[in-house]
Specification:
The protein is α+β, with helices and mostly antiparallel strands. It has 18 helices and 30 strands. Bound molecules: 2-acetamido-2-deoxy-beta-D-glucopyranose (2 copies). Keywords: Signal.
């Protein structure tokens, strides 16, 4: 009781600190970085927040922190204000619009800014389309703007926005070319490298394909391409653009070419103007190079190509279906809000910030038949590890992210599992580790594969995965039977913490994996194997507890009395209903965590003060006491609210200082849905 009360005061105080630095209201909270356009590993634009950064006056950033030129002006009765980005034009200094509020949901980030007597509402929508492969694989996001008078009068309003060549290449010294298509009702600027390199990255940006910026030919639209200061000055001076393209193709940073549209909303009163709509995206084809049997390399494409022949037709449909996309997004966002708020409002704040980031690390792809038609029976999903490295479909990164896949659509999990294991060192090349230099964590990964295979099968009632791969799953189980009870010195997914023998948490994963295989054999009707694995698991569990229990908690490694750690792998025992460990183990760990909690949470283990947000929420999902659960959730909330970080959700941070320890924008934040996936 006392603790609960103390904690709610602490959260209030933190919330107050978080908002005190900003002059706007934030709902649910000012996060370290606000997702703006986040849909793929290469369409990932964020507004770094820190202690409080307005949409007006700071450049959006790629997830790595490099600048993405994305500017916006609004002219109100002849006076211009900046509402997006930090554009500087010599001798012309528009005022900054004043941010009044920032709201984020699972798919949207919405800013209200006042520009003199007019308020702008700027909505960034990055859809998550869990039941539609075409829509989910569409690498585009929306930005919709409405204006209305805030003083009762009517005002003349013009809106401007541009993107820079930074959306087309991570290397700003490289030459790009661009073009503008105004032949239909949807106008599109396209920018791409003059010398693209397929399947290649530069500092995590893709080095091939093209960036697209589009708008509708309505509201007296005008366009222009050219040097940033020239194009922006044209709008600042005239409130419209020249409809002229610059054809002096050059490097991204050589007199910074920008690609702009402007609209004249005419007279705007106290009811909101109709949407001024922009879409931004990046398309590359093929998307993924994939190794198949016999070491053949296959080119795979984003799934949307099964429906569209051209990017322009894709964009036309995408922009034309904005109201459908928005209402689908609102329905989805409300569902997440209802589900997560039923746990707590702080939990909702964490979950809503995590969904775009987790799914934005993935792409859904398809291959071609030999006759050139699409093979829609061959759908695979790919996930980039992001920031810790660029690996493709890292099993021990898919595992922490798994809950978001269960929550959204378990079939996406199957599309990922069909493409594993750990398919390559550098996205988008899923070409294997034929040199044998993959990172070895065999207990971790055998356990992960068995746990995810059963989890998918339980949620989908589809036996195809476990039927097709029974032999492989049995092989992995055989390894666990030999190695899980007394784990050799090896790393877990938390590789940064180092190698250690007899890690209790790895033994837990291993034995849950063995029991998972028992249940798989049961589903397949293999009663003898089911009973064999079940009796092995129930024989191991008490031995593990005996090796690992001291002073009312599980040790980090057997016999090390003063050590402990987050034994988050118990979550799998609960998720799957494997029931390998007795309720008393869960109760013991629950009581223990409450005694070792720092301001920003429970450390990962006794070797360091840092923790992982994903494992804290997994732990919150397995504890047996609601207060302890909420304490863990509130610790992660306090960390995103503390104003000390300005990067896309970093899952690795210090429990004493609340500062990030590295890692950013990783899909593992999908693990924050662990409670919802139960
Ligand atoms: C049980 O499984 C283990 C590990 O795969 C195997 O070595 C053993 O032969 C099996 N026992 C029976 C009775 O099937
Ligand atoms: C691991 O634990 C077992 C059981 O307590 C013990 O026999 C063994 O010596 C330990 N191994 C290491 C490397 O500490």
């Amino acid at each position: 009781m006392g603790l609960l009360k103390l904690l709610s005061y602490a959260s209030l105080a933190l919330f107050a600190t978080g908002t005190a630095a900003t002059s706007w209201t934030a709902n649910p909270v000012n996060p370290p970085s606000v997702p703006l356009a986040v849909r793929t590993p290469y369409l990932s634009a964020w507004l770094p927040q820190g202690a409080g950064t307005s949409l007006a006056g700071a450049w959006p950033q790629f997830w790595t922190g490099s600048t993405l030129g994305w500017a916006g002006y609004v002219r109100v009765d002849g006076k211009t204000y900046t509402w997006l980005g930090d554009p500087v034009v010599p001798n012309l200094a528009p005022a900054l619009a004043t941010q009044k509020s920032m709201t984020y949901t699972s798919t949207q980030s919405t800013f209200v800014l006042s520009a003199g007597a007019v308020d702008l509402t700027v909505n960034f929508l990055s859809p998550v389309e869990a039941s539609d492969l075409v829509k989910q694989s569409t690498p585009f996001s929306y930005m919709a703007i409405t204006a209305k008078s805030n003083d009762g009068g009517s005002h003349s309003v013009q809106i401007y926005s541009d993107i820079s060549g930074e959306w087309a290449s991570g290397d700003t010294s490289q030459a790009i070319k661009w073009s503008t298509d105004t032949s239909s009702n949807v106008w599109t600027h396209q920018a791409q490298l003059q010398s693209p390199q397929v399947y290649t990255e530069y500092q995590d940006h893709t080095q091939y394909g093209a960036a697209y910026y589009s708008t509708q030919n309505s509201q007296s639209a005008t366009w222009q391409t050219g040097q940033d200061t020239v194009v922006r000055a044209q709008f600042l001076n005239n409130g419209k653009l020249s409809n002229v393209g610059d054809t002096n193709y050059r490097a991204v940073s050589n007199n910074w070419p920008v690609f702009a549209f402007a609209h004249d909303l005419g007279s705007v009163g106290t009811s909101a103007s109709s949407n001024t709509l922009y879409t931004v995206g990046h398309v590359r084809d093929p998307a993924i190079q994939y190794i198949t049997a016999g070491n053949n390399l296959q080119d795979r494409s984003a799934y949307f190509w099964t429906k569209y022949n051209t990017v322009q037709s894709l964009i036309s449909d995408f922009i034309g279906s904005y109201s459908t996309a928005l209402s689908a997004a609102n329905t989805f966002d409300n569902k997440v809000k209802n589900d997560a708020s039923a746990i707590s409002n702080n939990y909702y704040a964490v979950v809503a910030l995590s969904i775009r980031q987790a799914i934005g690390a993935t792409e859904i792809t398809v291959s071609k038949n030999s006759d050139g038609t699409w093979n829609t029976n061959d759908v695979l999903m790919f996930m980039k590890e992001i920031s810790s490295d660029g690996n493709v479909n890292t099993v021990d990164v898919i595992m922490p992210a798994w809950p978001v896949l269960l929550y959204l659509n378990p079939t996406w999990g199957k599309y990922l599992l069909l493409a594993v294991h750990d398919l390559g060192a550098s996205y988008p090349k899923a070409i294997g580790h034929n040199a044998g230099n993959d990172e070895k964590m065999p207990l971790e990964e055998c356990g992960n594969m068995l746990i995810m295979a059963l989890s998918y099968t339980q949620k989908s009632n589809d036996l195809s995965l476990v039927k097709t791969y029974t032999k492989l799953l049995e092989q992995w189980t055989g390894y666990l039977v030999q190695e899980a009870l007394i784990p050799a010195s090896q790393i877990s997914t938390d590789d940064f913490a180092g190698s250690l023998a007899n890690q209790t948490n790895l033994a837990i994963k291993g034995v849950v994996g063995i029991k998972a295989m028992s249940m798989i054999e049961g589903l397949l009707g293999n009663t003898a194997a089911q009973q064999n694995y079940s009796s092995i698991a129930s024989g191991y569990a008490p031995q593990i507890l005996n090796f690992a229990t001291a002073n009312n908690h599980l040790e980090l490694n057997y016999g090390a009395a003063n050590t402990w750690g987050l034994s988050y792998n118990l979550y799998a025992d609960k998720l799957l209903g494997t029931d390998v460990f007795p309720q008393s183990t869960f109760q013991m760990q629950t009581a223990w965590y409450n005694t070792v909690r720092n301001q920003y949470g429970v450390p990962l283990d006794t070797r360091h003060t840092y923790t992982k947000s994903d494992w804290q929420i997994w732990t919150a999902a397995l504890v047996t006491d609601t207060t302890v659960r909420n304490n863990l959730i509130d610790s992660v909330y306090a960390y995103i609210a503390d104003g000390k970080n300005n990067m896309p959700f970093s899952d690795w941070y210090d429990t004493e200082s609340g500062a990030s320890s590295g890692f950013r924008a990783r899909p593992v934040v999908g693990g924050h849905l662990a409670i919802l996936a139960l």
